[in-house]
Amino acid sequence: MTAESTVIMTPGQVSVENDSACQLARDMRFMEGIYMDNKEKNNFVGKFRRFWKQICLWFLGLLKFAGPGWLVCIGLIDAGNYEGDIQAGAGFQYKLIWIIWWSAVVEVLVQILSIRLGLYSRLDLAQSCRKNYSRFVSYTLWILMEAAMIANDLTQVIGFATACEILFHLPLYAGVLLSFVTALLVLSLQYWSVRYLELCVTLIILAMCVTFFIQWSMVNTNGVELMRGWIIPSIPSDSSLVILSQIGSCIMPQSIFLQSSMVQTRKVESTKKALHRAYVYNVIEFLIPMLLVFVANLAAISLAAVGFYNNSQITVSYSDVSLSNTCQLLRTAYPENGAGCILFGLSLLASSQSAVVSGTFAGQIVIEGFFNIRMPLWLRNIVTRLVTIIPALMIAILAGNQGSGLALLISSSILSATVPFAIIPLLKFTQSSKIMGTFRNPRYVSVLMWCIAIGLVIINVYLIVGVQGNYTLQSSLSDISLASILGIIATIVVGIWYVAFLIFLIWYPVVFESTVHQVTI
Predict the structure, then answer these.
(1) Where are the domains of the chain?
(2) What compartments host this protein (predicted)?
(3) How far is CA 303 from CA 249, 295, 373, in A?
């Protein structure tokens, strides 16, 4: 029987076969897609796309934390530091650049600890001091910090008033009053969001740096001497007050309180990975503006070093160079540069305004942290501004431009003397497992920072006692007048109290325990 068989399939069998074929086709396309994806990932274009995507995601994450570092970094190029830069360049050329560099390095290290305290314990430095110390010790620390902030704010207000005098020919007292109004206007941005305030200060600082760099491009800087002054430390004679002002202007105690509070304005999940990511972002966000304003410092010193140092046309000594007469000296040193004076006024106006806002914000944090009070925003701003506007007005009216220059240097020196009273509690808290838990400082970090803190105390004492020059103990010993004797007695009494209180802060243990540092793995 010739057999030609015919296979007859039912509709159900045809449907199953079609489904199987479709599934097979889908699987083939899926495998082909995986193969192509892997092939694309392994080629140059795929790797570049992945790299660029990671960069964009990292940058977007950094933008989330951008802002606090710009508020803090203004301490490196405020009006007091500006005058110190000009006097350093006019009197000692590039020899004191190393002071600014190492002050900036110490400021970065201290602010990293401040970031750790605020991020991991969710407490700022003022709140930690209130919780740990007795009421008497806390109030003493608050008085010292208020004195530092008044000295700093006094510097910025006088700088702002001097800039208004240069640009708009306003009298000094009118510029002081105008600073009160402009600061309140900028601070009013807090009503909408702190981010708006941070953005405003960032734009002001960028504008200031641009004016500095334009001025720097107009002079011929001696690069070899600049690098020598940067690398080789030296303390020229009669430079003690300038060095103190530079240290105080770079390492400001109120900036430590400000940073430890501002890092808490960003919401971060309580996991180790999220906290570490936030920590890295905050550190990088602070380093970028610090590097920028350090270069602006180099520009300010270079302007004075090229134009004022050993210039026969400059008839005033470096100690008499101040913000009030710098504009006239720029015209004398750079007669071909007509815009130099205007650029100087604009940079001074921008730096002073941003520093006033930053200082006022820090004052609010210190008052609220030490006293555990909450005031209305408008009342906090007005009270903080009134505390410093009164002494600034008195100096502007009674002492005028001549007295304001010395007031700037003395104010910066006060800042330098009060820095250890902020650094020592910060070190005690960040190395304590009671507050920081597993995020406490490693031993090598604690040893390094304690050496820096003790070194700052030694530098302050040495520059006042052991160095020759004006406003030091040796200058008082060379005079037998009644004022000199009273100055010596006051220096000894204050010095004994100063060292004794620092020893007490070092000895006093951490007595409170924070549970905020507990995290989810």
Answers:
(1) 52-441
(2) Membrane
(3) 19, 13, 46
Q: Which residue, chain included where needed, has tokens 């006097």?
A: 87
The residues with which 271 forms a beta bridge, in sequence order, are 520
Topology (CATH level 3) of domain 52-441? Hydantoin permease (1.10.4160)
Among 468, 471, 508, 505, residue whose Cα is nearest residue 491 = 471
> Cβ of 208: how many Cβ atoms within 10 Å?
26
Residues 72-91 as b or e (16 or more Cβ within 10 Å = b): bbbbbbbbbbbbbbbbbbbb
DSSP 94-132: TTTHHHHHHHHHHHHHHHHHHHHHHHHHS--HHHHHHHH
Task: Give per-residue pLDDT as tens, 239-283.
Answer: 777 887 777 667 788 889 999 999 998 888 888 888 999 999 999
| Amino acid type, 478 | S
- For residues 90 and 322, give the distance between their C-alpha atoms in angstroms, rounded to a whole number: 10
Q: Contact, 502 vs 495, CB < 8 A? A: no
- For 218, residues 6+ apart whose C-beta sits below 8 A from its C-beta are 334, 337, 340
277-336 confidence digits (pLDDT tens): 999 999 999 999 999 889 988 988 998 999 888 888 887 787 778 777 888 888 888 887
The CB-side HSE value for 256 (13 A sphere, CA atoms) comes to 32
Q: Are 175 and 164 in contact (CB under 8 A)?
A: yes
Q: Nearest to residue 86, comparing CAs of 400, 367, 308?
A: 308
Q: Which residues pair with 520 in a beta bridge?
A: 271
Q: How many residues would you count in the chain?
A: 521
